[in-house]
Amino acid sequence: MDGRLEIDNNRSERAIKPFVIGRKNWLFANTPRGAQASATIYSLVETAKENRLHPFYYLTYLLEKLPQLSNPQDPEALDMLLPWSPSLPIICRVFSSTK
Description:
InterPro entries: IS66_C, Transposase-related, Transposase_IS66_central. This is Transposase IS66 family protein. By secondary structure, the protein is mainly alpha-helical. It contains 4 helices and no strands.
């Protein structure tokens, strides 16, 4: 027996819980564009959580900054907005040891 392994799978079950709860909501994304928009937002929220960001403040920050970019195709400008960027404002960060 390997003592480094967890005895249960609660962590993995907790990780997929938002996806399972949300699936009934996705029945209302009755067009491909609606489904794509839902998937994009879901991906942004979950990526923010994995990078220890507060999803609401991070999305607010993105929605404020993205329209102000002079060249939205500029990779350097977009790098500054990525969830792992050290240049994100402190309000976007969550300082908790738990997810």
